[in-house]
Amino acid sequence: MARALPKAITITDAAAERVKALMSKATDEIVGLRIGVKARGCSGLSYDVQYAKEKLKFDEVVEDKGVTVLIDPAAVMFLIGSEMDYVDDKFQTGFVFKNPNEKGRCGCGESFHV
After folding, report:
1. 3-state DSSP assignment of residue 5
2. Strand partners for 68
3. How are the residues of the chain apportioned to helix, strand and coil, as percentages rounded to the nearest 5?
4. Strand, helix or coil at 72?
5. Edge-to-edge strands, sheet with 93-98
6. CA distances in angstroms from 2 to 15, 16, 103, listed in the order given
7. pTM for the whole structure
8. Cα 95 from Cα 98, distance rounded (Å)
9. At CB < 8 A and 24+ separation, what contacts does 89-97 make?
10. Over the stretch 73-101, which tens digit does the pLDDT of each residue have?
11. What pLDDT digit, counting tens, does each position of 52-71 carry?
């Protein structure tokens, strides 16, 4: 019996609720959020989260807790095993990624390297 492959990322309850809230406020038809990794910041890479109007051919699809997250194929290798969370406290508000592939972060926490 073949074992199911693990999801590219997991989504916390807080992140799922935030994705649902964002999707309900979107003015265009969207299918979920797209996560990518961009070359930027002092450590080299940063997470990029945008509305996804459609599923692209090679997107990795994660459906969990009633939400759909599409992962840019160029970002999959950087995100495998990550957890997507949403934090709203007095220090920060936004999506936070707990990524086991990170080897370090810049001082401000905006970018990372693998």
Report:
1. coil
2. 63
3. 15, 40, 45
4. coil
5. 9-11, 82-88, 93-98
6. 30, 29, 32
7. 0.80
8. 10
9. 95/15, 95/18, 95/47, 95/49, 97/9, 97/47
10. 998 888 888 999 999 888 888 888 888 87
11. 999 999 999 999 899 999 99
As a whole number of angstroms, the distance between CA 10 and CA 81 comes to 7
User: Which residue's entry shows tokens 């080299």?
Assistant: 44
The tokens of 89 are what?
């406290």
DSSP one-letter code for 17 = H
The residue with tokens 């990794």 is: 37
Residue 32's beta-bridge partner residues?
52
Residue 75, both tokens: 């970002």
Dig out the tokens for 7 from the structure.
């999801």
Q: Which two tokens stand for residue 104?
A: 């370090």
Q: What angle do CA 58, 60, 61 make, to 5 degrees?
A: 125
